[in-house]
Specification:
Nucleotidyltransferase, domain 5, globular
């Protein structure tokens, strides 16, 4: 006979007296009442915009085990990195299973760090940092823990693992990072449930910062009448949806800030607010935070569009991002006048023949064979670009010499930052209309900047992507080429080296015309250096 616990996860937890990995009863009353509905919610698409340490990971693990057991659904459960996944499985999930005979009975033939076999279903645990991690298994359910700390481009690839399933469930939970990406992007496609509480005067509302706290007396208050909210009132709320679930809003969404956690006081919230604001907003309030420069908007790029017709004279530089397809831009000191993508290298070869002195800077990693064949076909005119991690030197670009001729090494993150800054300052003309360059601008909106402390505690910034960003790199490569072949005013070296105004032309045999010694030794820099963009 079918029991209630066979169809209700909450009854199953009660019947089997499920405890946490620390041996504490998994309860949903008192200060954790707000977790009851998220735990019992079995909606196919769920998103949790949450603060850190809210208790979400534990209940999601129990839900995953129950869904695999009762509904026979295979699950891929991701963490930001493989190392974090291993630590979490070994340090929390395995102890949770060992502490509960009911859970231990579910895990059968396969039980290791990467896989739990439950009946005929599997739970696969994986990092979300490499493409290879997203191609091994198919699934009915994707669960992404700490989504915004993962590589969002890899998360997108994991979604292809649902293609063979008729269900295609997605459960996402994370503290947010930046607006409109990651968990916040999914939250905007949800019914947006808020935890509403009621004061002594029967006003019902959700808590927010700083309006729901008396900053002087340090207690929670009603935003409408300023009466003090007791801890009991704060935890005795209910979830209220702002929107209905629809085709446009398929996610069941919950906002879970520490404001609704009964074990966190108003004084603690105020103390948190005095620290780093990014941490406060994302980890305490569960809200996205941006300092303005962490994302690129369409206007940053499109304001560089100019109606002037580029005469396509002088040195032409082509920036190429390899892969399938190949993406490229073409420009000179007047601006970038052409962009496109292609399936093979024939259009690029045609451009190199059309412009006999053109220079190409090409991504060396996307296609190891094709890029090197281009360099062999056009010696002295094609340079393979190698991205490097942030370096301590001031030099952004290093051109290879001797055995390294034909290579150029670039500080990836600082070079991307330079190009973005120049777009914001209207320093990179785009010949054409906004419609002409919309798809290029769109690629720039697909990148975002993260800042984390390194092993020494020093903040480091890095530009990541969550969707196609090929034109970003094509323009970066073009900009690298302009730094050397755009009459040197456009250089991006950040040191005091003296430069000739015009670079010597590199001949096909990789020899250079001898410069006039008088020009070298008699050079003096003007008060304001020439810039190819000022002409």
């Amino acid at each position: 006979m079918l029991k209630l616990s066979d169809i209700s996860i909450t009854e199953w937890v009660k019947e089997n007296q499920i405890v946490t990995d620390a041996g504490k009863t998994l309860y949903f009353n008192g200060d954790r009442k707000f977790l009851f509905k998220p735990f019992s919610d079995l909606s196919p698409k769920q998103v949790h915009l949450k603060a850190a340490q809210i208790g979400m990971s534990t209940i999601q693990i129990v839900k995953a085990l129950w869904v695999a057991y009762r509904m026979n659904l295979s699950i891929i459960y991701t963490f930001p990195t493989k190392d974090l996944m291993q630590k979490y499985v070994q340090g929390k999930i395995d102890p949770l299973i060992d502490a509960n005979p009911a859970l231990k009975a579910l895990v059968q033939s396969t039980d290791n760090t990467y896989q739990k076999r439950i009946g005929s279903a599997n739970i696969i645990f994986s990092g979300a940092e490499k493409e290879s991690q997203a191609i091994a298994f198919s699934a009915d359910v994707l669960i992404h823990d700490e989504l915004d700390s993962s590589k969002l481009a890899i998360i997108k690839q994991f979604q292809s693992r649902l293609q063979a399933s008729k269900l295609k469930w997605q459960w996402l939970f994370s503290h947010p990072s930046l607006p409109e990406i990651g968990v916040h992007e999914a939250w905007q496609k949800s019914n947006q449930q808020h935890w509403f509480v009621t004061c002594d005067n029967a006003h019902e509302e959700y808590l927010s910062w700083p309006d729901s706290i008396n900053l002087e007396e340090r207690y929670f208050i009603c935003k409408k009448c300023n009466v003090q909210l007791t801890d009991q009132q704060r935890v005795s709320g209910r979830w209220v949806a702002k929107y209905k679930i629809s085709e446009q809003r398929p996610f069941s969404g919950y906002w879970e800030p520490l404001l609704i956690a009964g074990w966190v006081t108003a004084k603690e919230i105020i103390d948190y607010s005095k620290g780093d604001q990014y941490t406060f907003y994302t980890r305490v309030l569960g809200l996205p935070y941006t300092q303005g420069g962490d994302k690129v908007n369409l206007k940053d790029v499109l304001k560089n569009c100019i109606p002037d017709v580029n005469d396509q004279e002088g040195r032409i530089v082509i920036g190429v991002d390899t892969g399938l397809p190949i993406w490229y831009v073409v420009g000179n000191k007047q601006g970038i006048f052409y962009k496109d993508s292609c399936k093979d290298y024939e259009p690029l070869k045609a451009l190199m023949r059309r412009y006999p002195t053109a220079i190409m800077v090409i991504d060396q990693g996307g296609d190891l064979i094709g890029s090197r064949q281009m360099r062999e076909l056009f010696p002295g005119r094609v340079f393979l670009c190698h991205y490097l991690k942030d370096r301590k030197t001031l030099q952004l670009i290093t051109w290879g010499v001797n055995d390294e001729t034909g290579n150029v090494r670039v500080d990836r993150n600082r070079m991307i930052q330079l190009v973005i800054d120049e777009f914001r300052d209207k320093r990179i003309p785009l010949n054409g209309t906004e419609d002409d360059w919309y798809d290029v601008a769109l690629h720039f909106t697909h990148i975002y900047r993260t800042t984390e402390e390194n092993a020494l505690g020093v903040p480091e910034s890095k530009w990541e992507r969550f969707d196609d960003d090929h034109f970003v790199h094509a323009i970066v490569y073009w900009r690298v080429g302009m730094s050397r072949f755009g009459q040197q005013g456009g250089r991006v070296f950040m040191n005091n080296t003296t430069y000739m105004k015009e670079s010597p032309e590199i001949m096909p045999d990789q020899e250079m015309a001898a410069p006039d010694p008088k020009r070298i030794f008699d050079m003096s820099l003007p008060e304001k250096e020439d810039d190819w963009r000022d002409e």
